[in-house]
Design a protein that fits this description.
Blueprint lengths: L3 E2 L11 E5 L4 E6 L10 H14 L5 E6 L3 E3 L14 H6 L2 H9 L4 E6 L2 E3 L1 H8 L2 E5 L3 E3 L12 H8 L2 H10 L3 E2 H7 L4 E3 L1 H16 L3 H13 L7 H18 L2 H10 L9
Parallel strand pairs: 3-4, 4-6, 5-7, 6-8, 7-9, 8-11
Antiparallel strand pairs: 1-2, 2-3, 9-10
């Protein structure tokens, strides 16, 4: 299978982001700066944006992972203020904007945490819809050691984790492994590194077996509740709105009910 490259400019020689389109509506985005522990310079951030654009409308599930021993070591602090020359692309490739691109993408995003994930790397785990980590992964926030509150990673953890777990990451700068990340709910599952690819592939294929419209709108609901809606009655009403949207946008619900009534299995059933 060939891989296409998304990069900041035609002059970019380093293939900083690789995109592979697999069978069944699954795509894989690989951060490819292993010598920099996949730190996010401008070219890599632009690469993610362009890769997400390429996956829009063709991918039900996107797996994000890193090449080498790191998942992502955060934003590349050694790079100065580099511009692409395109104001809109510059805006979309700011680190906070990249998180919004992932969060608002119609595909379900799975983080395959193969190694070190620091600062912005942990933000990527939190913005992903699902995540599986290698036992050997090391996840943390070093910012307090620089006299800094982790501007994105801190809020992302505080919104996703229990208060004391988020405080541990923010205030100690200590790293947790994949097993602890699973215990804390930072990732869904932890497996030995040699089993990571198989586990992520199985999860991606399972999720991709469902209707694309249902996945997109379920993802919207998962971000909306409780992120924006936390009151019970309002949340239930929003759930009905989502169901109405799905009835109007896809025949999958009606077809699924017909299969259920006839005794057939629906996709994803064991």
């Amino acid at each position: 299978m060939s891989a296409t490259t998304a990069s900041a400019s035609p002059a970019e020689t380093e293939q900083v982001v690789l995109v592979e389109h697999l069978a069944g509506g699954v795509s894989r985005i690989t951060f490819n700066r292993p010598h920099k522990r996949n730190a996010m310079n401008r070219a890599a951030r632009v690469g993610i944006v362009r890769a997400l654009d390429e996956c829009r409308g063709r991918s039900k599930v996107i797996v994000m992972t890193g090449n080498g021993s790191a998942f992502c070591a955060g934003v590349d602090l050694k790079e100065g203020d580099v511009s692409t020359g395109d104001a809109e692309l510059d805006r979309r490739s700011e680190w906070a904007a990249v998180q919004e691109e992932i969060r608002n993408h119609p595909a379900v995003v799975i983080a395959a945490v193969n190694g070190t994930a620091l600062g912005g790397g942990s933000t990527l785990i939190n913005v992903a819809d699902l995540a599986i980590a290698a036992h050997e992964a090391q996840i943390g926030m070093p910012e307090i050691g620089f006299g800094l509150y982790p501007t994105l990673a801190g809020p992302a953890a505080q919104l996703r984790l229990k208060p004391k777990h988020a405080a541990w990451l923010v205030l100690t700068a200590e790293r947790i492994d994949g097993t602890t990340a699973a215990e804390w709910g930072l990732v869904n599952l932890a497996v030995p590194l040699e089993e990571l690819d198989a586990a992520v592939t199985a999860l991606a294929e399972r999720v991709a077996s469902f209707d694309a419209t249902a996945l997109e709108w379920s993802k919207k609901a998962l971000w909306k509740i409780p992120g924006e809606i936390s009151q019970w009655t309002e949340a239930i009403a929003y759930g009905h709105e989502i169901a109405d949207e799905l009835r109007g946008r896809s025949t999958a619900l009606a077809e699924g009910l017909d299969r259920f009534r006839s005794g057939e299995r629906n996709p994803g059933q064991g």
